[in-house]
Write a structure and sequence with these properties.
The complex is a heterodimer of chains A (about 325) and B (about 400). By secondary structure, chain A is α/β, with parallel strands linked by helices. Chain A has two domains: about 5-200, Rossmann fold; about 205-315, Hypothetical Protein Yjia, Chain: A,domain 2, CATH 3.30.1220.10. Helices cover about 30% and strands about 25% of the residues of chain A. Chain A is built from ten helices and 14 strands. In chain A, the strands form three sheets. Chain A has a seven-stranded parallel beta sheet, with helices on both faces. A five-stranded antiparallel beta sheet of chain A has the order 10-14-11-12-13, with helices on both faces. A two-stranded antiparallel ribbon of chain A has the order 4-5. The two termini of chain A are about 35 Å apart. With about 400 residues, chain B is mostly beta strands. Chain B has helices at about 5-10, 355-365, and strands at about 15-20, 25-30, 40, 45-50, 60-65, 70-75, 80-85, 90-95, 100-105, 115, 120-125, 130-135, 140-145, 155, 160-175, 185-195, 205-210, 210-215, 220-225, 235-240, 245-250, 255, 270, 280-285, 290-295, 300-305, 310-315, 320-325, 330-335, 340-345, 385, 395. The longest helix of chain B has 9 residues, at about 355-365. Chain B is globular and about 50 Å long.
Chain lengths: ~325, ~400
């Protein structure tokens, strides 16, 4: 990740899950760093910071052919304005409303050139209320989508539930998003090293987990539509085959694919090819060079109604051997 | 004189460039209407006012600290002042000799855009979805509200009686002479990021988030797309007789011809192929058919629209050019960058070739508008498309 870019952390989670508590914890800790904070509504709880900007959530559809490509126009404006400020700050924290769809926020960092050039999305942190989560996910799709988008999950208010219930909640979270790092907390008390400066969007750590441990055949045991699929192939990929496959996949299934991430070993390339996407918006870069022993290609999709076998067959057909 | 100053001086026989360094983002630059002073708003929360027609060295110019970040800048209604909007909600007037007076304060609001009109003596300040209107005495006249999203741009009609406001999904045109108006709506889907009104009053053009412009012919109630940009359109500037619209957003400075039948079916004229990066700012010369363009690498070019000949007015450095402004007499160009370089470029002689009839007519008229030589010739279909090819060779459809 480009060190000269300002890191942005997005905090999502249902109303009452503890977003503002976490925000104030980050801001008051003695870390010697200053943050600009963007909130969507000034809540009853004050925010203890010099630079707090109240955003008016403006979700703009792009007409570039991606039916689900939306951005937050207000964030483009606020962030480009904040970056003109001299000396300014070490990072930006964005608190979304409880019912916010994380996609437009995340897509903003992929789509707008000025934002992309100056800031990088460090991670999406989702707060989950251990007591109410299982009810929330029955209420609507927002709570599930917030978990699906997360790089880091704070499973908060664990003091309010039994061990049995906590396990049920955690299992449910894992079934939606097995890749996020989960921190179990009371009153959002977490080491900030576990939340900030993650570079989660540069993926290196997330995909380190062996996919075999994650994909779980037990996905089928749950009656759920949002889940994840992890794929791995050892043979190097033919970049043309892969490119054609992923474009077609994103074009036809992008609405259902919330997040996609991959670290790929392309034939003839010394360096890792790293990409990530949100719905139909993709971004890619060259990562570190491979050492021979560890070359393989990994892909993760989190989304709705994913067909694991079809995805696996498609991905495997992209190798030079296929 | 600094090392940098020496290095940047005299890049061409026609321009003399001096670069001074301030350690703050250059947010905006504007001359007052008389041209007696230039103001520069900076990311350190100050405004710099250089008198002596902008020739006063910046080291000797007044630097006035404000109690907030200045976000917006425009010439005031008279010849002398400049209007400044801040993130502390202040709408200020800064005089040529550096006095600051507060017109109004809206605590907690960001004043993102300001504009004024010399004829009607109106000042407007946009914040969020609302526009505050003040008269020349500084009295708050009204709040214009009801826009479907935050206001992204404002442009007065040439006579100053109407105000075009860009926002999500189109433009609202308000009649400022009507105390209880409902706006005329021009619709175009998507995020419009700015709006400009042609100096002859006949066209409104928006820049969009989606790598194109949208143009309405107000006389004929038609609209068209002007597309082909490789990135989002960043700035627009009209030649004063409305012959050309210069646009920043491609790797070259593009200028769409509005002579004859308008831009339809014609590729834009282009100059400045040789440089890396994209054009981030444009400013049309106040009376010649030439344009100054600022680039993402800090270069500034001044080019003749018709011939495509260009001269280097500032060497690449200091990060992207963020603001660019001509003096009203066209003799000085100011350009500022995101890393705080401020270039004062004195232009000796003409940039473009011979003065043509339209330019002479414009100069004779003193200011304002001149009618185009021929009436626009436009067919009867709905939304049509013009294309600026990003490689440089434009095509039209």
């Amino acid at each position: 990740m480009d060190d000269t870019k300002v890191p942005v952390t997005v905090l999502t989670g249902y109303l009452g899950a503890g977003k503002t508590t976490l925000l104030n914890r980050i801001l008051t800790e003695q870390h010697g760093k200053t943050y600009a904070v963007i909130v969507n509504e000034f809540g009853e709880q004050g925010i203890d910071n010099d630079l707090v900007v109240d955003a008016d959530e403006e979700v703009f559809e792009m007409n570039n052919g991606c039916i689900c490509c939306t951005v937050r126009g207000d964030l483009i404006n606020i962030i480009t304005t904040l970056l003109k400020r001299k000396g300014s700050f070490d990072g930006i924290l964005i608190e979304t409303t409880g019912l916010a769809d994380p996609a437009p926020v995340v897509q903003t960092f992929f789509v707008d050139e000025d934002v992309k050039r100056k800031v990088s999305l460090d991670s999406v942190v989702t707060l989950v209320d251990a007591l109410h989560f299982l009810d929330r996910i029955e209420d609507g799709h927002e709570a599930v989508e917030q978990v699906a988008f997360a790089d880091i999950i704070l499973l908060n208010k664990i003091d309010l539930v039994s061990t049995y219930d906590l396990e049920r909640v955690e299992a449910r979270i894992r079934s939606i998003n097995p890749h996020a790092t989960i921190h179990k907390t009371e009153r959002a008390a977490v080491e900030l090293d576990g939340v900030l400066g993650q570079g989660a969007f540069d993926l290196s750590r997330i995909l380190d987990i062996e996919p075999e441990l994650l994909t779980g055949e037990d996905d089928h045991e749950h009656d759920q539509t949002i889940t994840s699929v992890s794929l791995k192939v050892d043979h190097p990929l033919d970049s043309r085959k892969f490119s054609a496959w992923i474009r077609e996949l994103i074009r036809t299934r992008g609405t259902d694919i919330f997040r996609s991430k991959g670290i790929l070993s392309l034939a003839g390339q010394e360096r890792r090819y790293v990409f990530q996407g949100v719905h139909m918006v993709m971004d890619s870069t060259w990562g570190e060079a491979w050492t021979t022993s560890e070359r393989d290609s990994r892909l993760v999709f989190i989304g709705r109604n994913l067909e694991g076998d079809t995805l696996r067959t498609g991905f495997e057909a992209c190798t030079i051997a296929a | 004189m600094t090392m940098h100053d020496r290095a940047a001086r005299i890049l061409s026989p026609d321009v003399e460039t001096a670069v001074e360094q301030r350690n703050a983002f250059v947010i905006g630059q504007a001359f007052n209407r008389s041209g007696s002073a230039v103001a520069i708003i900076l990311g350190d929360g100050s405004v710099v006012v250089a008198g002596d027609r902008g020739l006063q060295p910046l080291a000797e110019a007044q630097t006035i600290p404000l109690d907030g970040l200045p976000l917006s800048l425009a010439p005031d209604v008279d010849g002398e002042g400049l209007v400044v909007g801040t993130d502390a909600g202040a709408v200020l007037v800064v005089s040529a000799d550096g006095n600051v007076s507060e017109i109004h304060r809206f605590p907690g609001r960001w004043i993102q855009i300001v504009a004024s009109h010399a004829g009607t003596h109106l000042r407007v300040a946009a914040s969020g979805r609302e526009i505050e209107v003040f008269d020349g005495a500084g009295c708050h006249q009204r709040t214009v509200s009801g826009h479907p999203s935050s206001v992204s741009g404002m442009a007065f009609s040439p006579d100053g009686t109407r105000l075009a406001v860009s926002h999500y999904n189109g433009v609202s045109i308000w009649d400022l002479t009507d105390p209880s108006p409902s706006p005329t709506q021009l619709q175009w889907k998507g995020s419009q990021t700015g709006v400009s009104w042609s100096p002859d009053g006949r066209y409104l053009v928006t820049s969009t988030q989606e790598n194109e412009l949208h143009c309405w012919n107000l006389d004929q109630n038609r609209d068209m797309r002007m597309s082909g940009y490789p990135s989002k359109v960043r700035a627009m500037s009209w030649c004063p007789n409305a012959s050309y619209l210069a646009v920043a957003g491609a790797d070259v400075v593009t200028s769409w011809s509005f002579e004859g039948g308008g831009p339809e079916g014609k590729p834009p004229l282009e100059f400045g192929y040789v440089f890396e990066g994209t054009v981030t700012c444009v400013a049309a010369h106040p009376f010649e058919k030439s344009v100054a363009g600022g680039y993402s690498d800090g270069t500034v070019l001044i080019g003749d629209i018709a011939s495509g000949d260009a001269i280097i007015a500032k060497a690449p450095s200091g990060g992207a050019v963020t603001a660019i402004a001509w003096s009203p007499d066209g003799s000085i160009l100011f350009a500022g960058t995101e890393q705080g370089e401020i270039a004062r470029i004195r232009v000796v002689g003409r940039v473009s070739g011979r003065r043509d009839a339209a330019e002479q007519a414009f100069i004779n008229a003193g200011a304002g508008t001149t009618a185009p030589e021929t009436a626009p010739l436009i067919s009867d279909c709905g939304s049509t498309e013009c294309t600026a090819d990003e490689a440089g060779s434009g095509t039209a459809s």
